[in-house]
Specification:
Number of strands: 0
Order of helices and strands: HHHHHH
Distance between the termini: 113 Å
Structural class: mainly alpha
Number of helices: 6
Radius of gyration: 33 Å
Largest sheet: none
Amino acid sequence: MDASRPITPTIDIFRAASVNVVMGTAVFTGLGGLAGSSIGVLKSQPAIPLAFATSLNTGIFSFSFFSCREYLIHPLFNYLQFYPLESSPHTRNIVSTSIAGLTTGTVVSYFARGSRNALRSGLTLGLGCVVIQSMFNEAQLVRIKTLAWSEERRAILEEMDSAQVAEQVPSEPIPTFTRHISSPVPSVPSRETFSERSDRLIGSGIAWLRDSLARVSPVKKMDDATYQEKLAQRLHAIEKERRDVSVELEKLESLREK
Protein backbone atom coordinates (compact mmCIF):
# COMPACT_ATOMS: atom_id res chain seq x y z
CA MET A 1 0.00 0.00 0.00
CA ASP A 2 0.99 3.60 -0.58
CA ALA A 3 -0.38 5.57 2.34
CA SER A 4 1.07 8.85 1.07
CA ARG A 5 -0.94 8.71 -2.14
CA PRO A 6 -4.54 9.95 -1.80
CA ILE A 7 -7.40 7.71 -2.80
CA THR A 8 -9.00 8.82 -6.04
CA PRO A 9 -12.77 9.40 -5.65
CA THR A 10 -14.78 6.47 -6.96
CA ILE A 11 -16.95 8.67 -9.19
CA ASP A 12 -13.83 9.97 -10.97
CA ILE A 13 -12.58 6.42 -11.54
CA PHE A 14 -15.85 5.26 -13.08
CA ARG A 15 -16.19 8.43 -15.15
CA ALA A 16 -12.75 7.83 -16.66
CA ALA A 17 -13.49 4.11 -16.96
CA SER A 18 -16.50 4.72 -19.21
CA VAL A 19 -14.44 6.79 -21.62
CA ASN A 20 -11.58 4.28 -21.64
CA VAL A 21 -13.88 1.32 -22.25
CA VAL A 22 -15.68 2.99 -25.15
CA MET A 23 -12.56 4.41 -26.77
CA GLY A 24 -10.49 1.24 -26.31
CA THR A 25 -13.23 -1.01 -27.65
CA ALA A 26 -13.82 1.23 -30.67
CA VAL A 27 -10.12 1.48 -31.53
CA PHE A 28 -9.38 -2.24 -31.27
CA THR A 29 -12.59 -3.18 -33.07
CA GLY A 30 -11.55 -0.98 -35.97
CA LEU A 31 -8.02 -2.37 -35.94
CA GLY A 32 -9.42 -5.91 -35.90
CA GLY A 33 -11.60 -5.18 -38.92
CA LEU A 34 -8.65 -3.65 -40.76
CA ALA A 35 -6.46 -6.66 -39.95
CA GLY A 36 -9.17 -9.09 -41.07
CA SER A 37 -9.69 -7.31 -44.39
CA SER A 38 -5.92 -7.23 -44.97
CA ILE A 39 -5.66 -10.98 -44.31
CA GLY A 40 -8.51 -11.61 -46.73
CA VAL A 41 -6.80 -9.60 -49.46
CA LEU A 42 -3.47 -11.36 -48.92
CA LYS A 43 -5.10 -14.81 -49.00
CA SER A 44 -7.38 -13.95 -51.96
CA GLN A 45 -10.47 -14.50 -49.81
CA PRO A 46 -13.56 -12.32 -49.35
CA ALA A 47 -12.38 -9.37 -47.28
CA ILE A 48 -15.72 -8.19 -45.85
CA PRO A 49 -16.69 -11.46 -44.06
CA LEU A 50 -13.19 -11.78 -42.60
CA ALA A 51 -13.19 -8.15 -41.52
CA PHE A 52 -16.59 -8.56 -39.84
CA ALA A 53 -15.58 -11.77 -38.04
CA THR A 54 -12.24 -10.36 -36.87
CA SER A 55 -13.73 -7.06 -35.72
CA LEU A 56 -16.47 -8.96 -33.84
CA ASN A 57 -13.94 -11.16 -32.03
CA THR A 58 -11.59 -8.29 -31.18
CA GLY A 59 -14.55 -6.16 -30.13
CA ILE A 60 -15.82 -8.80 -27.70
CA PHE A 61 -12.38 -9.39 -26.23
CA SER A 62 -11.45 -5.70 -26.00
CA PHE A 63 -14.78 -4.78 -24.37
CA SER A 64 -14.34 -7.58 -21.83
CA PHE A 65 -10.71 -6.64 -21.23
CA PHE A 66 -11.28 -2.91 -20.72
CA SER A 67 -14.37 -3.52 -18.59
CA CYS A 68 -12.44 -5.91 -16.34
CA ARG A 69 -9.50 -3.53 -16.00
CA GLU A 70 -11.40 -0.26 -15.61
CA TYR A 71 -14.38 -1.40 -13.54
CA LEU A 72 -12.82 -4.14 -11.39
CA ILE A 73 -9.04 -4.01 -11.13
CA HIS A 74 -8.44 -0.26 -11.02
CA PRO A 75 -11.15 0.43 -8.40
CA LEU A 76 -9.82 -2.49 -6.32
CA PHE A 77 -6.24 -1.19 -6.52
CA ASN A 78 -7.45 2.29 -5.61
CA TYR A 79 -9.40 0.96 -2.61
CA LEU A 80 -6.38 -1.01 -1.39
CA GLN A 81 -4.02 1.87 -2.25
CA PHE A 82 -1.98 -0.65 -4.18
CA TYR A 83 -0.11 1.00 -7.05
CA PRO A 84 2.46 -1.49 -8.39
CA LEU A 85 5.05 -0.18 -10.86
CA GLU A 86 3.21 3.13 -11.14
CA SER A 87 6.22 5.27 -10.19
CA SER A 88 7.71 4.98 -13.69
CA PRO A 89 5.86 6.06 -16.87
CA HIS A 90 7.41 3.08 -18.65
CA THR A 91 5.49 0.57 -16.49
CA ARG A 92 2.21 2.43 -15.97
CA ASN A 93 -0.83 0.07 -15.92
CA ILE A 94 1.39 -2.91 -16.67
CA VAL A 95 0.23 -5.00 -13.68
CA SER A 96 -3.47 -4.22 -14.09
CA THR A 97 -3.23 -4.86 -17.85
CA SER A 98 -1.54 -8.23 -17.35
CA ILE A 99 -4.16 -9.33 -14.79
CA ALA A 100 -7.04 -8.16 -16.97
CA GLY A 101 -5.54 -9.80 -20.06
CA LEU A 102 -4.95 -13.10 -18.26
CA THR A 103 -8.44 -13.12 -16.72
CA THR A 104 -10.30 -12.06 -19.86
CA GLY A 105 -8.27 -14.34 -22.12
CA THR A 106 -8.85 -17.36 -19.90
CA VAL A 107 -12.60 -16.76 -19.57
CA VAL A 108 -13.14 -16.02 -23.28
CA SER A 109 -11.06 -19.05 -24.30
CA TYR A 110 -12.94 -21.28 -21.86
CA PHE A 111 -16.32 -20.39 -23.37
CA ALA A 112 -15.01 -20.40 -26.95
CA ARG A 113 -12.80 -23.52 -26.97
CA GLY A 114 -13.41 -25.34 -23.73
CA SER A 115 -11.28 -25.81 -20.63
CA ARG A 116 -8.44 -27.71 -22.29
CA ASN A 117 -6.26 -24.77 -23.43
CA ALA A 118 -8.01 -21.93 -21.62
CA LEU A 119 -5.14 -21.09 -19.26
CA ARG A 120 -2.53 -21.27 -22.02
CA SER A 121 -4.61 -18.93 -24.20
CA GLY A 122 -5.08 -16.59 -21.25
CA LEU A 123 -1.32 -16.43 -20.67
CA THR A 124 -0.70 -15.71 -24.35
CA LEU A 125 -3.34 -12.98 -24.51
CA GLY A 126 -2.13 -11.49 -21.22
CA LEU A 127 1.41 -11.30 -22.58
CA GLY A 128 0.14 -9.67 -25.75
CA CYS A 129 -1.78 -7.08 -23.72
CA VAL A 130 1.37 -6.29 -21.72
CA VAL A 131 3.35 -5.76 -24.95
CA ILE A 132 0.68 -3.44 -26.36
CA GLN A 133 0.48 -1.51 -23.07
CA SER A 134 4.28 -1.10 -23.04
CA MET A 135 4.20 0.25 -26.60
CA PHE A 136 1.41 2.65 -25.64
CA ASN A 137 3.38 3.86 -22.60
CA GLU A 138 6.46 4.54 -24.72
CA ALA A 139 4.39 6.40 -27.30
CA GLN A 140 2.84 8.55 -24.57
CA LEU A 141 6.29 9.24 -23.12
CA VAL A 142 7.61 10.33 -26.53
CA ARG A 143 4.62 12.63 -26.96
CA ILE A 144 5.13 14.21 -23.54
CA LYS A 145 8.86 14.71 -24.16
CA THR A 146 8.14 16.27 -27.54
CA LEU A 147 5.63 18.71 -26.06
CA ALA A 148 8.03 19.55 -23.23
CA TRP A 149 10.84 20.16 -25.72
CA SER A 150 8.52 22.38 -27.76
CA GLU A 151 7.55 24.47 -24.74
CA GLU A 152 11.18 24.75 -23.63
CA ARG A 153 12.20 25.89 -27.11
CA ARG A 154 9.38 28.44 -27.10
CA ALA A 155 10.59 29.82 -23.76
CA ILE A 156 14.17 30.08 -25.07
CA LEU A 157 13.01 31.91 -28.19
CA GLU A 158 10.95 34.32 -26.10
CA GLU A 159 14.00 35.06 -23.92
CA MET A 160 16.11 35.67 -27.02
CA ASP A 161 13.48 38.01 -28.45
CA SER A 162 13.26 39.88 -25.15
CA ALA A 163 17.04 40.30 -25.10
CA GLN A 164 17.05 41.60 -28.68
CA VAL A 165 14.27 44.06 -27.90
CA ALA A 166 16.15 45.33 -24.83
CA GLU A 167 19.25 46.03 -26.95
CA GLN A 168 17.40 47.99 -29.62
CA VAL A 169 16.93 51.75 -29.72
CA PRO A 170 13.65 52.77 -28.05
CA SER A 171 12.60 54.77 -31.12
CA GLU A 172 12.67 51.74 -33.36
CA PRO A 173 9.50 49.65 -33.66
CA ILE A 174 9.47 46.55 -31.51
CA PRO A 175 9.40 43.40 -33.67
CA THR A 176 6.86 40.79 -32.77
CA PHE A 177 7.14 37.12 -33.49
CA THR A 178 3.58 36.16 -32.69
CA ARG A 179 1.06 34.82 -35.13
CA HIS A 180 -2.66 35.22 -35.41
CA ILE A 181 -4.58 32.35 -33.92
CA SER A 182 -6.56 31.80 -37.13
CA SER A 183 -3.48 31.82 -39.37
CA PRO A 184 -1.78 28.44 -39.87
CA VAL A 185 1.49 30.10 -41.00
CA PRO A 186 3.72 31.70 -38.34
CA SER A 187 5.39 35.05 -38.96
CA VAL A 188 8.87 33.56 -38.49
CA PRO A 189 8.96 30.02 -40.00
CA SER A 190 12.52 29.35 -38.86
CA ARG A 191 11.43 29.68 -35.23
CA GLU A 192 8.48 27.32 -35.36
CA THR A 193 7.87 25.09 -32.37
CA PHE A 194 6.52 21.57 -32.65
CA SER A 195 2.94 22.62 -31.94
CA GLU A 196 3.13 25.53 -34.40
CA ARG A 197 4.51 23.27 -37.13
CA SER A 198 1.75 20.73 -36.44
CA ASP A 199 -0.92 23.45 -36.62
CA ARG A 200 0.53 24.77 -39.89
CA LEU A 201 0.72 21.34 -41.54
CA ILE A 202 -2.77 20.34 -40.39
CA GLY A 203 -4.17 23.69 -41.51
CA SER A 204 -2.52 23.34 -44.91
CA GLY A 205 -3.88 19.81 -45.29
CA ILE A 206 -7.41 20.89 -44.38
CA ALA A 207 -7.21 23.84 -46.80
CA TRP A 208 -5.97 21.57 -49.61
CA LEU A 209 -8.75 19.06 -48.95
CA ARG A 210 -11.38 21.81 -48.89
CA ASP A 211 -10.13 23.27 -52.18
CA SER A 212 -10.02 19.83 -53.80
CA LEU A 213 -13.58 19.06 -52.74
CA ALA A 214 -14.72 22.49 -53.95
CA ARG A 215 -13.29 21.81 -57.42
CA VAL A 216 -15.09 18.47 -57.85
CA SER A 217 -18.28 19.38 -56.00
CA PRO A 218 -21.35 20.14 -58.15
CA VAL A 219 -22.29 22.88 -55.70
CA LYS A 220 -20.19 25.97 -56.39
CA LYS A 221 -19.76 28.95 -54.14
CA MET A 222 -20.53 32.30 -55.77
CA ASP A 223 -19.97 35.84 -54.62
CA ASP A 224 -22.65 38.54 -54.32
CA ALA A 225 -21.93 40.07 -57.72
CA THR A 226 -22.28 36.74 -59.54
CA TYR A 227 -25.45 35.94 -57.62
CA GLN A 228 -27.00 39.32 -58.51
CA GLU A 229 -26.04 38.88 -62.16
CA LYS A 230 -27.61 35.42 -62.35
CA LEU A 231 -30.70 36.70 -60.54
CA ALA A 232 -31.04 39.56 -63.03
CA GLN A 233 -30.72 37.14 -65.95
CA ARG A 234 -33.38 34.92 -64.43
CA LEU A 235 -35.76 37.86 -63.91
CA HIS A 236 -35.15 39.01 -67.48
CA ALA A 237 -35.98 35.53 -68.82
CA ILE A 238 -39.16 35.38 -66.74
CA GLU A 239 -40.21 38.84 -67.94
CA LYS A 240 -39.61 37.84 -71.57
CA GLU A 241 -41.63 34.67 -71.06
CA ARG A 242 -44.45 36.71 -69.54
CA ARG A 243 -44.49 39.06 -72.53
CA ASP A 244 -44.55 36.12 -74.95
CA VAL A 245 -47.50 34.61 -73.09
CA SER A 246 -49.33 37.97 -73.21
CA VAL A 247 -48.79 38.18 -76.97
CA GLU A 248 -50.11 34.65 -77.45
CA LEU A 249 -53.20 35.46 -75.34
CA GLU A 250 -53.89 38.57 -77.41
CA LYS A 251 -53.65 36.54 -80.63
CA LEU A 252 -56.08 33.94 -79.26
CA GLU A 253 -58.53 36.65 -78.22
CA SER A 254 -58.41 38.24 -81.67
CA LEU A 255 -59.00 34.90 -83.36
CA ARG A 256 -61.94 34.20 -81.08
CA GLU A 257 -63.59 37.54 -81.89
CA LYS A 258 -63.33 36.85 -85.61
